[in-house]
Amino acid sequence: MKSEAAQGKSRDPGLDVRLPKESCSDPKCPFHGHIKVRGQVIEGVVVSTKMQGTVVVERTLLHYVPKYERYEKRKSRYMVHSPPCLKVSEGKRVRLAETRPIAKNVSFVIVENLGDVTVHVRGEEEVKE
Ligand SMILES: [Zn+2]
């Protein structure tokens, strides 16, 4: 595996994601290391990159409340391992895949950088139409 990473080859983690253009020598990288992914694949937004090799990803979801026939916003935070080859920064939308526990609170790894979050400003959208 180490020699493959040195040659810049990516290992396909078995997910429908774009392979990173760059290589890295992170053993916990799903493309260039030996981390295997299984389980959930979810999307979220990076809210903190202050830890080493780990980022905080927030996911918001809508939960239906039958009594009021409306949705309430719920959010959950995940500590996620961030391989250096994906170049993830705060505010980026990312796809995570579940893996074995990497640390006490980390059992997800970033598998795709989906780019900047598109902010929908209601006023601007009305102008475009
Ligand atoms: Zn990598």
Task: Give structural attributes.
129 residues, mainly beta, OB fold (Dihydrolipoamide Acetyltransferase, E2P), 5-stranded mixed beta barrel, 2 helices, disordered C terminus, binds zinc ion
What would the CATH topology be?
OB fold (Dihydrolipoamide Acetyltransferase, E2P)
Q: Mind telling me the CATH class?
A: Mainly Beta
Mean pLDDT: 86
Could you give the order of strands across the largest sheet?
1-2-3-5-4
| Residue fraction in strands | over 45%
Compute the number of helices.
Answer: 2
Q: What sequence of helices (H) and strands (E) makes up the elements?
A: HEEEEEH
Number of domains: 1
Tell me the span between the first and last alpha carbons: 52 Å
The helix content is: under 10%
Oligomer: single chain
- Examine the secondary-structure arrangement and name the CATH architecture: Beta Barrel
What's the alpha carbon Rg, rounded to whole Å? 17 Å
Bound molecule types: zinc ion
Query: What would the principal axes of the Cα set say about the shape?
Result: globular
Total strand segments = 5
Structural class: mainly beta
| Poorly predicted ranges | 125-129
**Major sheet summary line:** 5 strands, mixed, barrel
Description:
It is globular, with a radius of gyration of 17 Å. The protein has two helices and five strands. Strands 1-2-3-5-4 form a five-stranded mixed β-barrel. It starts with a helix and ends with a helix. It has one domain: Beta Barrel (OB fold (Dihydrolipoamide Acetyltransferase, E2P)). With 129 residues, the chain is mostly beta strands. The chain binds zinc ion. The site of zinc ion has 8 residues, from loops.
